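User: Fold this one for me? It's Membrane protein DUF2238.
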Amino acid sequence: MYANLKRPPRSVVEWLADVVRAVAIVVVIVSLFTLPFTDFAVLSMSLPAVMLSRMIGLRSGLDLVTCVTVFVAAGSNVIDLYRAWTGWDLIVHAVCTGVLAAVALVLLDDACVIEPTGRRRTPIVVATMAGLALSAVWEMIEWFGYRFITDAIFVTYDDTIGDMIAGGAGALLLGIVASRFRLTRADRAAL
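Assistant: Here's what I get for Membrane protein DUF2238.
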């Protein structure tokens, strides 16, 4: 993982992904001093994902999409886009869960739990299961935040189920892509 992290970017897309990572880090640091703590916490939850996508050696386009998606998902919460734009919540849940399912597939591949992605059907099932599990965990975090931190978090039964369906659908689509294409760079270093 460290070898992938310290590897210099070699393409425009890899540079863009690293720029998004750097912006995310700066925004999180600035938010610590300028935003309410709950907003800082939401933004800071995006940092592990934007760093992990580089560390596991995702293909450059998928790395960029992961960084942008995760940071947009966190930022949308902070600037209240989920309430302002009808349907935005479902779109973000689908795309974000899909890219996080990609990260899960690569981690499971590196741990020799599943076969490598590309030309196999296993990723369809595993990505969907990972996406549904990630969706469930996220919804539990939302509920916990609503119950114990602030009632400003929007939590209803319909919203929870809709978010999980969208997340599962995004992960399923990613699984279909991963069954046909490798998700990692050819020159990446495994765990």
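One thing worth pointing out: Residues 9-178 form one domain.
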